[in-house]
Write a structure and sequence with these properties.
The complex is a heterodimer of chains A (about 400) and B (about 325). With about 400 residues, chain A is α/β, with parallel strands linked by helices. Chain A has 16 helices and eight strands. Chain B is built from 13 helices and twelve strands. Chain B has an eight-stranded mixed β-sheet with strand order 3-4-2-7-1-8-9-12, sandwiched between helices. A two-stranded antiparallel ribbon of chain B has the order 5-6. Chain B has a two-stranded antiparallel sheet with strand order 10-11. The chains are: A alpha/beta (about 400), B alpha/beta (about 325).
């Protein structure tokens, strides 16, 4: 049985009070950062000590928190106006490079190998650009933050991915890349002996090496090779941390919130991510669909006045025609969205939490609080009985 | 005329926050260029054929496909582009197959730093330079690129810069420098920043402009503000809507349309229009660029007809 809308809301509200880690995922432009911040604020107002961490270098979180600047360290946000009581809220932006550096410092066996990595040109230029490094460092940071007893709840806003899958799998891919056994396979024989001889076991290996040489040139290969050799010995430590992150994400004290816009494409992505979570046995908390346009004729307030009983009113004809056109436009929009959401309900067997389009853009704390109230206060939009969904 | 300026370049790269409708804007620009008689190639990157589908195209299988006279689309898949490059470099079929089948290749390609982006930009450069026929004319007058929404700002365009610095010699470093040169050539290349009239998108548009100028050195040519709510009521009518709302009149405007609900829809429209206006003014003040507004379209699906109407807006800008 799918949950009813009200149940989905109360489940999420409960999670905000009980869980330790909440990961907020979704494709770009669906209001993910805003949702993550609003959930964090709501939990803080409920008395928890919350940290919200975003990956986005474009400082979107800072904007929505009404702060000029956020740094790589948790920064407390003044909640006095919100009656948070014992609760508190801090925010930070993930600094990919410094998290990577910290990881190296943690795992390097000695000062020399530390320097070898940090000074390596390849590392300096591309560690932050490695495919998956944002995702990997987000996970790494999460592990560190989850152990920080200044906070009861960590809300992690994830990088917007075109393909939601990337977020869960990128860390593994990066680890695969750093697995020295892979590149050593064709790089090490090249340089380990300190002279440039091609001694590789297979013809394919030789061809791959030749290819790499043609691609990248000798000097870069040397640096690349040094980079991997420097990571040797640290790899086991990395792997162990990654295993702990996976365990943390699967733990019942964690949970995923999937955010979407009411467009078919964004909902499809959310559904896809939902399936992946199930496959990976990671706890799913619920869908949040932002900026939903309710059918203007079926809105709460319209229902109070049953229009069957209403007579025509005199409105200037030009204005009436224009009002009607605007009304019809909104109906089309509402219909398109309703269809897409209904499909998600059927496919995911779950009732999403629908957040109606707000009157104002959310870009300060007060609006964030209102956003949270909209999610947790009114469930009218999502309260159609479950039986209404064809099964 | 904005379009004159855009069409004087050979490469347009669209950028903007996710969800602002870059692919629709890209398709509209391509269509407008074609109506002016240009041969246009619209490049999408690993997208589920969004813009091309709206233009009525089927799958392109990685090759430019002419979907209307003079209008071509191609959907680049990073893995396929990489394979093509391997074939080009190695040339020996058996070896190519062995390399492409080897797990090392796949693991390397999956995570190698920015390799995908570099390969894609390389391919875009090749397309821009492609010549055809006996006269060796440019195959396309204009290449429009819907850059992937990486979510990391201009990460996609910063790749050649990082590669050029990290790889001092060899063909990859050489190509990275060539790509960088193309991106920085103001006569050939321009960035089009796409935004919508909302706070986050506006902030990001300004940030993208700064990064483009300061860090990549590519010239932004225009801001396209998509999804704008335009004036639907006169000033007097807007006042009248508020008056009628406050009066709490009961009644219906039309069959199934309560007046109260229609007035609410009207107030929403006015609010959105004002917000649109606010962000138009703000972006005009913040960015030294021409700004074009495209309307929000209330449609079941955006197809060729809607794209033509957007193209006409660009032409009129």
């Amino acid at each position: 049985m799918p949950r009813r809308g009200r149940d989905a809301v109360s489940a999420l509200a409960r999670a905000l009070l009980e869980r330790r880690v909440i990961v907020v995922c979704g494709s770009g432009g669906v209001g993910k950062t805003t949702t993550a911040s609003a959930l964090a604020l709501h939990a803080a107002r409920g008395g928890r000590r919350v940290l919200v961490c975003t990956i986005d270098p474009s400082r979107r979180l800072a904007t929505s928190l009404g702060l000029q600047q956020l740094s790589g360290r948790p920064r407390p946000i003044d909640l006095r106006r919100f009656g948070a009581g014992r609760g508190s809220m801090s925010a930070m932006v993930l600094d990919v490079k410094s998290t990577f550096d910290a990881l190296v410092l943690r795992h390097a066996p000695n000062e020399a190998s530390r320097r070898r990595i940090l000074d390596n040109r390849f590392y300096r230029h591309v560690s932050a650009a490695l495919a998956g490094s944002h995702e990997y460092m987000a996970m790494e940071k999460l592990l560190e933050l989850a152990a920080d007893d200044r906070f009861d709840l960590i809300v992690l806003d994830t990088p917007p991915t075109r393909h939601a899958l990337d977020f869960l799998e990128a860390p593994d891919r990066l680890l695969d890349f750093l697995d020295t056994s892979v590149l050593k396979w064709f790089l090490r024989p090249y340089f380990a002996a300190g002279r440039l001889t091609i001694r590789v076991a297979t013809r394919t290996g030789a061809a791959a090496l030749k290819l790499a040489d043609r691609f990248l040139g000798l000097r870069f290969l040397e640096e690349l090779s040094e980079f991997f050799l420097a990571f040797e010995g640290m790899y086991d430590g990395f792997k162990e941390r990654a295993a702990r992150v996976h365990a943390l994400l699967r733990d019942p004290s964690s949970g995923f919130v999937l955010v979407a816009a009411p467009s078919p494409l964004a909902l499809e992505e959310a559904l896809f991510f939902h399936r992946r979570l199930a496959e990976k046995q990671m706890p799913f908390l619920g869908f949040v669909v932002n900026r939903v346009h309710p059918d203007p004729a079926r809105d709460d307030r319209a229902r109070r006045a049953p229009w069957g009983s209403l007579g025509p009113v005199a409105v200037e004809p030009d204005l009436a025609a224009r009002l009607l056109a605007v009304f019809r436009d909104l109906q089309v929009l509402a219909r398109v969205e309703r269809r897409a959401i209904a499909r998600l309900e059927v496919d995911a067997r779950d009732r999403p939490i629908l957040v109606p389009e707000l009157e104002q853009d959310v870009h300060d704390l007060r609006r964030l609080a209102e956003f949270g109230d909209t999610i947790f206060g009114g469930v009218a939009l999502a309260s159609r009985p479950a039986a209404a969904v064809a099964r | 005329m904005l379009l004159d300026d855009l069409l004087s370049r050979r490469l347009l790269v669209l950028t903007g926050k996710g969800g602002v409708g870059k692919s629709v804007v890209g398709a509209a620009i391509a269509l407008a260029a074609r109506e002016r008689g240009r041969r246009v190639l619209l490049v999408e990157v690993a997208s589920p054929l969004e813009a091309a589908r709206r233009l009525g195209a089927g799958p392109s299988h990685g090759r430019p496909t002419e979907i209307q006279p003079g209008l071509f689309t191609v959907n680049l898949d990073p893995a396929a582009v990489m394979e093509e490059y391997v074939r080009h470099v190695v040339r020996i079929d058996l070896l190519v197959r062995r390399i492409l089948e080897s797990p090392v290749y796949h693991r390397f390609f999956a995570a190698a730093p920015a390799l995908k982006e570099l390969m894609l930009l390389g391919k875009i450069m090749v397309l821009e330079e492609e010549r055809t026929g006996l006269a060796r004319r440019h195959a396309w007058d204009l290449v429009v690129v819907d850059a992937p929404a990486t979510g990391h700002g201009l990460a996609f365009l910063k790749v050649p810069l990082a590669a050029a610095e990290a790889i001092p010699v060899g063909p990859v470093g050489h190509n990275a420098r060539r790509i960088l040169k193309l991106l920085r050539d103001r006569r050939r290349t321009a960035l089009v920043i796409v935004a919508i009239p909302e706070e986050m998108a506006a902030v990001e548009a300004v940030e993208l402009h700064r990064l483009a100028v300061d860090e990549v050195g590519v010239a932004p040519a225009a801001v396209v503000l998509n999804g704008c709510h335009e004036r639907r009521f006169s000033d007097e009518e807007e006042v009248e809507i508020l008056r009628l709302s406050a009066a709490g009149l009961r009644g219906r405007l039309d069959e199934g349309v309560p007046l109260e609900a229609a007035l609410r829809a009207g107030r929403r429209q006015v609010r959105r229009r004002k917000l649109t206006r606010f962000y138009q003014d703000r972006l005009r003040r913040a960015l030294p660029l021409p700004l074009v507004s495209l309307p929000f379209l209330f449609r079941e699906d955006l197809g060729l007809e809607e794209l033509h109407s957007l193209a006409a807006r660009l032409e009129a800008a």
